[in-house]
Every structure is written in structure tokens, then in C-alpha cells.
Amino acid sequence: MDPSDNNNNPQFLPYITSSNSLQFTIHLPNSISNPNPSPNPNSISDQLLSLSIPSKRRRGRPRNTTSSLNQVYDNFPNYNGNQLNSDIVRNLTARTSTVTDASDEIIVINKEATTEALIALTAGFPADSLTDEEIEAGVVSVVGGIEQVNYILIRNHIITKWRENVSTWITKEMFVDVIPKHCSALLDSAYNYVVSRGYINFGVAPAVNGRIPAEPSKPSVIVIGAGLAGLAAARQLMLFGFKVMVLEGRKRAGGRVYTKKMEGGNKVAAADLGGSVLTGTLGNPLGLLARQLSYTLHKVRDKCPLYRVDGKPVDQDLDHKVEVAYNLLLEKASKLRQLMGEVSQDVSLGAALETFRQDYDDSMNEEEMGLFNWHLANLEYANAGLISKLSLAFWDQDDPFDMGGDHCFLPGGNGKLVQALAENVPILYEKIVYTIRYGTDGVQVVAGGQVFEGDMALCTVPLGVLKGGSIKFIPELPQRKLDGIKRLGFGLLNKVAMLFPYVFWGTDLDTFGHLTDSSSSRGEFFLFYSYATVAGGPLLLVLVAGEAAHKFETMPPTDAVTKVLQILKGIYEPQGIEVPEPIQTVCTRWGSDPFSLGSYSNVAVGASGDDYDILAESVGDGRLFFAGEATNRRYPATMHGAFLSGLREAANIAHHAKVRTTSSKVEKKPSKNAHSYACVLDDLFREPDLEFGSFSIIFAKKSSDPESPAILKVTFSGPQTRNHDGIKPDRHLSNKLLFQQLQSHFNNQHELHVYTLLTKQQALDLREVRGGDEMRLNFLSEKLGVKLVGRKGLGPNIDSIIASIKAERGKRKPGSRSLTLKSGVMKSKGATLKRKIVRKGKVVSGGNRTTSSPAAISRNKAVGSSSIAIPLTNVDLEPKPVCTIGSVASPSLNIGVNDNVGSKSVGSSSVYLLPNASIGDKFEGNIGSSTTPIVNAGGQTGSNSNAPSYPRSTYDDSTNTYAPPSSGNSAN
Predict the structure, then answer these.
(1) Contacts by 818-821 with C-beta closer than 8 Å and gap 24+?
(2) Contact at 8 Å (CB) between 472 and 569?
(3) Which tens digits make up the pLDDT trace of 919-930?
(4) Is residue 527 helix, strand or coil?
(5) What's the CA gap between 632 and 615, in Å, rounded?
(6) Chain center to CA of 80
(7) Which of 151, 229, 383, 597 might form a disulfide with 464, Cβ 3.0–4.6 angstroms?
């Protein structure tokens, strides 16, 4: 593609500054797409529509590939000849069997049906069918007919119209003259759908901002987290007329997207320490935001040389050879999972690759092995996870949905997008959320000593925080969601940003890689990003992935900088290029950041894409919603995935609010109904009425009637043998690691739950049986004559009993429960929740008790080696001690290493603070499972007495990063 092609089409891709050298292209000549071409030079149909689909495995190294687009364009019939548009229409009408002459009834909007279908495709719509969400929304009266064809044509035309100029507000009236009158209802349906779901008319353009009502008229929503998901949802909800309040634990917005200003001497640069690359720009909502702000994106150029351990460049032919072998192994792993079927869910990608790699071990020399390990490091970077923990079955389940287009940087950093999104959004910073209560009357969010009330809440905290359990949900989240949180993986990626006095590495490339001498360290400083062309100064970013990323969390920052400089000197000094000392450096530690506890999600062994959908499910009958990259099945682990999830949940919140207004019941998706009562049953058995041995029982009614029904569950644990016939012996399956995981799949200790229905009296009699579980089972069989069955064996009649038990237990509304955190500091808020406004925070206190938070930490997190005085407004503890610290009496507790309070420990780990801290200090350091150098002027750092001590100015508390001083410059 000629670079000028992009410039000729400013309406479509004006923000890409560099050309593509090899892509799958679709030429749409005027003679085909528009027999009567318009003189308008900006017409999309006059241009070359270029679509490239980068595979996730290519995230770190944008190389030209011949990857097929078939997975994306499965529904497209043909791409050439004068029959292009007619083929699209024919495919759209192929499912219609009741119409003899379909062409007479299909509307003609213009001659650009193909182009518009492709543009709609980049927005996530199939080429010739409806999405499940559209069907559920009832956009057409009959699915599969001519009405559907016309709806799709109208929908695609509306999306294309907005994409031509994303800074305008598209109104329905713009289409009245081009849409036939008999299709006005379809126009209403299509327009309302794409607007309400955030496919058009979103973002930060003045035309969009001007539509936000001055006085909100709809219910109140509390958004927890001001990352891309939270900001996208908040702006969209404000546009819809909702009252919105955003609670953010950090001092800044953006979450895992953080651009830090680095400066020293006369040099200034913007470093993206979190999310940095826009992976695909066709249809990417962040690319559309950049267009609204008139920002120009910079394409990450394909050139990415690799350097050996000794600094010498890798031979290009050898590089190509190993890359081909690496891709071949991935293809073999893909075929293996097809042969394994369901078994592959319990096998790691790493085990499969290690098995097949044995074929190459004998023929590989040291350099080739280093190259292969570099590609594995790149793969672990793309997934933020160790390949030994990635699911062979589903690690790349999102690849078919990758955004088309180039990988790009935003000059000046993605913080510019965050700043634009946060403008005029009501955000309260440094509000760490500890408790979320939800029920039929609304929600209450406890942040420190404050209570925020609303009609609904949206939780956008990262998966790592949900896994950490620092937020307490009342009632507890459904078991289905807890299991999904546990199954999904949440990996780690770290960076070192270095500002230099000048660019010594050249400006003709954006990336270069470095090999390591061992597989365990393959991800350590393996890839460099040159930000010199986009950061405003001579800036290099180096990535730390895989196992090395976890070790990096405890590496002293000075050691990290020293190692990086050694690598750079080994590469450039043999070329006669002097490597200067950096002006400023910053090291990230996302795994230790209490507000993220990691970087982004992946599909771990045992998980699947379904778990993303489970995490996205709302709870509490449409009161508590969830967004974030880990809730987006199609676009996980991406910035645009987080943003799109926020738009999605804004639509869901609006839908539930509307349904409640009309006193209707929200219909759940059919795919989730199949599990609903099973999930409820699991939740009920978390608090059984009786429990003895392997038996647990719940009663249908709290009455004395001995004949009232009861549900019995028996849990069996033991090796579950399975048929091995599906796996044939093969030399490729001789790897020890792979066999270990297969054995785990077949022989692992699985829990088996069986059930039966009893009367209350029978349940009580069963409890009295002596002799253990064996005698109880004998009693059930011989005395009572009952059979134990699986959940489905109970039949549909059990559903009414399950529903009655749930209703009985749910009579106490969450709002009526005491808000007292077991310390007794907080007072009850009463029986109902006020629903008219989101309060800016009500500090609940009693007497002289403190409600401030001298130590702003998350619950249950280890943070050092000494002790901390914790105000009891922030911790659930029994009993309720009051102690004196210094001369200040406060309801606080001094908890030392491994101390328990009464019989209850503080969460799952002890709570510490670094030495020399006092009760009045505000803790802004690392909270996590690993000890890292925490800034404390004049004191030791963490539990490592030998760790270096840095001045406070070197620590960035907004993202838990460290900037060691160098060259006499004071780093910030």
C-alpha cells in the first residue's frame, strides 16, 4: 500500500502516519462499488479498504504474516467481480424461504452495501446475520426474513455514516430521505439499538458532550474504578441522563493505563507505564476517540531486529527459520487440542509446546534455542501469563475477534485519552472500596469511613483485585461467579522506562529485541520499545514478561537499571556508539499494586471463554454490574476491551432501569437460564441448615412441620477414573510434563455432589445415625428407600422448592442489615436505601471514635515486616478491642506478624507496615504477597534489611513505581 493511500482518505483512517507494507487488501473500484462516483474525494467507497488481523501472539513484534482472514470473514461469500454487492445481498437473503422474489422487497440505500458491511464488521457485527444481543433486543419481528435483511442494511448504513465523521452527532432525521417510509420502524429499531449500545454517538467530541443533560433525571449509579471501563460507562450513563459518581482508590484516573511525565535537564518525555499499544485501529473505539481529539496515531513499524546475548545481531535467515519452526509448533499444538477434545481444557499450552519442541532439541544450537525462547517470551507477554499456566484449549479464544488495522502508539501517551474521558466526570479519588452491599432496594458502597448509596453500582476493579478478595460483597457473589474469578488467569507484565540525554539507538525502528541465555529468564528485558518518535523525548521502554516479571517485583530498581544498561552497551558500543547514563528511570511493579495486583487477564488451565461472560453477568436482579477487560470475551487483555465493556454495561444499566420503571421483569439470556437454579442451589448450600460428615441439608420452611421438604446434598471425594481410549499412544505424547497434566485430568481428586429430597423429619433422623457416612448412606438406602441423584436427576419440580428457600432467606433486605463492621464503629442505616441521589459520602461515626484512615491500605494484605495500627472502621474483626496508641485513644488494633485477634485472624494473612511508621502516617507503598522496597525516608525497606533505601522523591505512589536517581539527577 502506498503511504499516500492513507492520506487520500482522511475520513476513514486519517490517524495512521505510516503505511502497511503487506496486508490483505480489498480493492473497491468505482465501477463496482459506485457506478456513479461522487466527486467527494472523501467517499469511503472510492478508497482502498485495508484490513489486517494481528494475532495475539504478535503483540510484541508486529511482523507481516499471511494469517488467514477466513475466521473473520466466514460469512462473506466472494470478494471479486462485478457480483460483489449482489453476492452480499444474496447471502443476506439466503435464509429466506418464504419469498419467491426477494430482490423486489430489499431496500436500496446506495451501491456501497459491501463497504458498509465491512465497516460494520469492524464494529463487531456479522456480515449477514444478527448478533445474539440484537435478537434478544427484538430488533426485528421475524429473524431470518427480508425484514432482517433490510434492518442489517440500515444498521450498517448508520454506523458507516457516523464513522465518516465521528465528531458529529448522528440523528435519526438524517436518514429519513434515504430510507423508504415503509421501513421507518426498522430505522427506529436500528438507530435506537446502535445508540443505546454505544456503537455510535459516544466519546469526547463537543457534539457528544453537548448532549449530556445539565440536570440528571434518571436513577443514581455508583461506578467503582476510574479506569477505561469506568470512565466509558460513566460518560455514557451521564449522556443517558443518569446521576453518576465514580469512586477511585488511586490519586489519579486511568487505572492500568498510566502515562508518566519524565523529565530531567532540558528533556521531557511521556512514558506509558501501563497499557501502551492500540492493538488494531479499524473500529477500535480508542482510535475513534483519537480522531475526535484530532490526535494522530503512529503505526508501530514492522522492523524489529533481534540481538544475541553477547549483543551481536541475530542473522535474519536464522531468525526466519526459528520463527517458522515456532509457528509450526503452535499449529501442532492447535491440532493436538482438536484431537484431545475436552481433555485439552486441563492441559497447558506450555506442556504441548514442550512436548513437540523435543523434536527440535537435538538439532537446535544455543543461538537457535535462545531465539525460540524469545518467541515464547513474546507469547507470555501477549497473554501476561506463563505458558505453563495457559489453557491449551482456549488460550487464543479471542483471536478471531482481533481488531483489524495496525498496532499504533498515541503520541504523548494514552493518558491524553484518559484525561479527555475524565473531564467533567464526578470522580472522588483516594476512595478505597471495602464493602459493596446490594439488594432489591439498591446498593451501598463502603469506602473507608464513608457510605455511598445509589440505585445501582458498576464494579470495574481488575480481576486481580477480585481474586485478592479485598472487597467484601454482601451478599456474597454467586458461586458461579466466584468459580469464574478463580478459574481465569491474571498475569503480569512490568516495564523499565529510561529517559536519555539523546537518541543513540536511531529513529528508524520502533522495536528491537534481546535474547537471554536461559529459558527461566527469557522474558527479562526481552523487548525494547523506542518512544523517541512519540514521547516528545529520547525515551526507551523495556518489557519484563513471564517468570521474569514476577522476579522483577523484588529486584532492586538499581539492579534492574544496571542490567538494562549492560544490554544496551553490549549492543551499541561494539558499533562505536556510546551509551549515556539515563537522566531518569522508572520501574513498574503492577503485581504489587494493591489496585491491580497484576496486569491483564488470560485463559488459564481449566478456564474458558465462558468465564469472561460469567464475570460480566450482573447480580442482585440488576443492581450490581461488572465491567473491565476481564469481562470482555471478545477483547480481553486490551484497552479497547475495557472501554467497550464500559459501554456495554452502561447499556445494560439503562435497560434494567427502564424495566424497573415499567415494573417489568428483566428477562435473562436463555444461555444463562439453564444454570440459574443450579447456581442458586450451590449458593444456598454455602450456608446449610444442617451439616454432618459429608452430608448437608437445607430446609424449605422455617417451621415445625416434620413433613416440610428438605434438600440433602452428599459430597464424595475421590479419584474419578476415565476412559483413556480417546488418547492414542504417540511419540509426541512422551513428554513428562504433558503426561502429568493428563494424569491430573483423569485421576485428580474431583468432588462429586449428589442430592435427594427428604422431609424435615427424615433429615433429623439421618443426623442421629451413628457410625459415620457409610452407615448414613445405608440408612438412606435401606430404611428410607431414597436414591441419590445428580442435580438434573432432581427434576424440574425441585425448582419451586429452591425458589422458596431463596425467598425465605432473602426476606432480610441488605439495606436493613446492620452496617456495623464488626468493630461496632458504624451505625445502621435503616431498613431502606435512599434512591434519589448518589451521596458524596456520608461519614458514619460514633462518639469520639475516629473515622479517618491513618493507614490507607486494603484489607488482608501483607505490607512489610513490622506492625500497623488499623482503625476498625476499615477491618472486620471479632471481638471489638480498643487500644491506646501514644496519647491518642482510638478504636484501633495493633496487629503484629502472625498475630490473631481472638480466634480470628485478619483475613488470610497478617497485616504489617514498614519500620519507623507512625499512626499519623499515610501509607502509600506496596501491598501484595511479595515484599518489595517500600519508600520510607530514613528507614529500612520492607522485610529486606539489605534492600536499598531511596529518598521519597523516587517513589511514584499513583502506580507503585520506583525511579532510582542517576547521573546526579533527582528522579521523581
Answers:
(1) 819/437, 819/444, 819/446, 819/451, 819/844, 821/435, 821/446, 821/872, 821/873, 821/874, 821/875, 821/876
(2) no
(3) 233 333 332 333
(4) strand
(5) 9
(6) 38
(7) 597
Q: Compute CA distances 178 → 26, 278, 329, whole Å.
A: 27, 35, 52
- If DSSP codes are grouped into helix, strand and coil, which group holds residue 296? coil
**Secondary structure of 550-561 in HEC code, one letter for each residue:** HHHCCCCHHHHH
The residue written with cell numbers 494469517 in the block is 67
- CA quadruple 362, 367, 368, 371: dihedral sign: positive
Report the residue count for the chain: 972
Q: Determine if the peptide bond prior to 219 is cis (ω within 30°).
A: no
pLDDT for residue 496: 98
The residue among 390, 394, 382 whose CA lies nearest residue 340 is 394
Closest CA to 583 of 57, 54, 963, 66: 963
- What are the grid coordinates assigned to 748, written together? 485428580
Predicted confidence band at 192 (pLDDT cuts at 50, 70, 90)? Answer: very high
Mean pLDDT of the region 591-595: 97
Q: Kindly state the percentage of the chain with pLDDT values over 90.
A: 51
CA 670 – CA 416 distance, rounded (Å)? 41
Beta bridge partners of 949: none
**Burial annotation 632-658 (CB, 10 A radius, 16+ → b, else e):** bbbbbbbbbbbbbbbbbbbbbbbebbe
Q: Is 469 exposed, middle or buried (0-12, 13-18, 19+ CB in 10 A)?
A: middle
Reference 50, options 76, 80, 20; nearest CA is 20
| Cα angle value 246/249/250 (rounded, 5°) | 110
Q: For 949-971, what is each residue's pLDDT tens digit?
A: 333 334 444 444 444 444 433 33
Cell 519508600 appears where?
A: 935
Q: What are 247's three cell numbers? A: 469512586
State the cell numbers at 297.
496515531
Rounded-to-integer distance, Cα 65 and Cα 55, Å: 9
Report the run of H or E that residue 749 belongs to, with start and end: strand 749-759
862 pLDDT above the threshold of 80? no
Strand segments (E) across 659-742: 690-692, 695-699, 709-719
Query: To the nearest whole number, what is the mean pLDDT of the chain?
Result: 75
DSSP tag of 581: P
**3-class SS string, 204-223:** CCHHHHCCCCCCCCEEEEEE
Identify whether the C-beta of residue 258 lies closer than 8 Å to the C-beta of residue 592.
no
Mean pLDDT: which of 129-138, 264-273, 458-467, 894-903 is highest? 458-467
Q: For residue 71, what are the CA distances in angstroms to 55, 68, 75, 97, 120?
A: 12, 7, 9, 27, 16
Please give the Cα distance from 934 to 939 (Å, whole number): 10
Element (H, E) at 495: strand 494-499
Closest Cα partner for 226 from 433, 408, 411, 448?
Answer: 433
Q: What percent of the chain has pLDDT over 70?
A: 67
Residue 241's pLDDT band, with cuts at 50, 70 and 90, is very high
The Cβ of residue 303 has, within 10 Å, a number of other Cβ atoms equal to: 13
Sequence-distant (6+) residues with CB within 8 A of 420 are 204, 289, 293
More confident residue, 510 or 857: 510
Q: Which residues contact 855 (CB under 8 A, 6 or more apart)?
A: 868, 869, 870, 871, 913, 917, 919, 921, 922, 923
- Phi-psi domain of 530 (left: phi exceeds 0; alpha: psi -120 through 50; beta: other): beta
Beta-ladder partners of 447: 433, 450
Query: Cell numbers of 76, please?
Result: 462473506
